[in-house]
Every structure is written in C-alpha cells, then in structure tokens.
Amino acid sequence: MYIKRNIGWGLILRYAWKNLIFFTFYAGGIFCLYHFLGWTFIDIPFQPLSVIGIAVAFYIGFKNSQSYDRFWEGRKIWGGIVNYSRTWAIQVLSFVRSDDPEHDQKIHTQMIHRHIAWINSLRVQLRQPKSWALKENRLVEKVFDKHEERNISCNEAYNYVSMREFSDLKKRVNPATHLVKNQAFDIFELKRKGIIDGFQEDQMQSVLEEFYNLQGKCERIKNTPFPRQYGYFSKVFTWIFVLLLPFGLLDVFEDDAMATLGKVEPWYIFLMIPFSVLISWIFTTMETIGDNSEDPFEGRINDVPMTALCRTIEIDLRDMLDEKDLPVGVLPKDNILY
User: Fold this and answer.
1) Consecutive 10-residue runs of the chain (338 residues): their mean pLDDT?
2) What distance in Å separates the CA atoms of residue 250 and residue 253, rounded to the nearest whole number?
C-alpha cells in the first residue's frame, strides 16, 4: 500500500513511460502525415469521438469502482483477522488454566505462536501469483523483486511451531488450513484433560471457525479473477479512443485556428500533439488504476499491507505473552507498506 500523500513522478513514469513515448510518436506521425504530406483528409469530426470518450469514461468508472470494492473487502477481511487474533490470544490466556503454571505457559506459547504462524502462512499463500495476475513492465517489477515479498508459505511457520509440526506442514498443499486444524486438536486435548470446560471449548472452536471463514473469504477473492468481460473490454475501448483521438484533435485545432487566426497555421495544429498525449495518458492511467486494484493480495503498490498487519498482530500477541525483545513494526520501503 502506497502511503505517501503525493505519488512521486519517478514512480508515475515507471508505469507510464512506454505509453508516453508511444503517444508522442503516434501523434507526431499523424501530424507529419497531415502537414508535410498534405493528407488533410485524415482529420475526423470530434463530435462522435467525444461521445466515445464519454462512454469510455463511464465504463472505466464502473470498472474502477468494482476493483476498489475488491480491495476494500480484502482490507476489511484482514481487519477481522486482526480483531479475532486478539480475541484468540485472550481466550487462550484466560481459559487455559491449571494447577501447573509452567505447563500453562507452554500451552499459551504454543497456541499463540501457532496462530502467528497461521497469519504469516496465509499471507504468503495469498501472495503466490496466479496465471491471470497483472504483469507490469520491468521497471515496476524491479521494485517488487527488490523487496522480496514472495516466498514459500510453510517457511513462515518455521520460527513458531515445533520441527515435527513444521516437517508435516512442508508436505501440505495448504499449510494455513492445517495450522488451524492443529489448534482444534489442541483444544480437544485440553477439554479431554479437563483443563477447559465445554463452554470454553465451544468459544475457542467458534473463533477457529471464524479464522476459516476469513481465510475462505481471502481465498475467494484470490482465486476468482476480476470478470474479464469488464477488465478486457475496458482496455479495448480505452485504446480505441486514444488511437482515434489525434485525428479528432486535428479537426478541433483546424476550426480553432480558423476562428482565432483566420487561417490554418502549422504551429497551431502542432499543439494537438501535447494535448493528445495528455488526454491519452489520463485515460490509460484511469484504466491502469482499475487493473492495479483488481487483486488486492499480490504484494503490489496498492494492495492490502498484509506483512505490516501480520507484524502488528505478532507484536500484540507476543506482548500479551509478556515476551521480551518484541519485533519492531514493519516500515515502508520506497513509500510502500507491504
């Protein structure tokens, strides 16, 4: 998630430089055909083009609204994970009580650390790219490669579970699911030994059920691509508009030159190049914004900052255990909070 109030032009150009170069040469080529080769017939009336532009703007607006809904739902889900994680720690600490404080402390640490393993495993599982995931240009991808946010999900559990449990997780397709399952087995054992009663068992199992619900909601967003009929045709319609735009601007600047100067001046018509580049960049940027919000768990610039949220949960839960040497919060990298 990008956290700086204003987006730097360096980052903007990482996304836009190819389009800006293309739009400049494209509009310049059309001007050369019009002015130097005398192809005055290539100008088209701007009125139908303006209708296309309005339709494209509405279509992009709809797509961006739906894309943002996917991001916001993902953020709300992780807000629920934060809240229920604290609830889980409180239940473990207050329900698991026996005549052996050392045994209690061991169980508290085991169950809370396993939960920290779960949130981190879930985070990395969600960051694994899908076949339909957005592919950026090399300059943008360099940013993500430099920050190294993609790794094998079960490795995140290494520091929080026993070696026996970790060895089992490495064989699993979905390590996060098995971590919650192991929590349920521990609750069953605590009930069997009489350390917790039936009501407490039910309360703790309900929280585990909510963890599965939240994980399932994340996986639903992750495994369901944004409807391609909206994503694909938004891009098609945008490019139809921007490719026709320079031809329509020839007509606009022709008429304006005649009205202002009384004749068609080449330098005046030349102004259509920067205006064409500017309008084309605005429309393609609007379209790209929607693309970048479709999949909120990819670990990109505008995605849910799961790494920071996992660290926040870890700090809170380990602090509840009265542990020392707590980790520090995750800091943004290049103004991006992961």
Assistant:
1) 81 86 92 81 85 92 91 95 96 92 92 95 87 72 64 67 86 91 95 92 96 96 88 91 90 64 63 90 90 85 90 95 90 83
2) 5
44, 252 in Cβ contact below 8 A? Answer: no
Q: Is 1 helix (H, G, I), strand (E, B) or coil?
A: coil
In Å, what is the CA distance from 312 to each residue of 33, 116, 328? 60, 10, 9
Closest to 152 (Cα-Cα) out of 135, 182, 176, 132: 176
Output the six-digit token pair for 56: 């494209």
Instruction: Tell me how far apart the terminal alpha carbons of the chain are, to the nearest angstrom.
Output: 6
251 Cβ neighbours under 8 A, 6+ residues apart: 43, 44, 45, 46
Tokens of 326: 């707590």
DSSP string, 215-252: HHHHHHHHHSPPPHHHHHHHHHHHHHHHHHHHHHHHHH
CB 74 within 8 A of CB 221: yes
Q: What is the DSSP letter of 155?
A: G
User: CA 114 to CA 165: how far, in whole Å?
Assistant: 10
Task: Give me Rg for the CA atoms of the chain.
Answer: 28
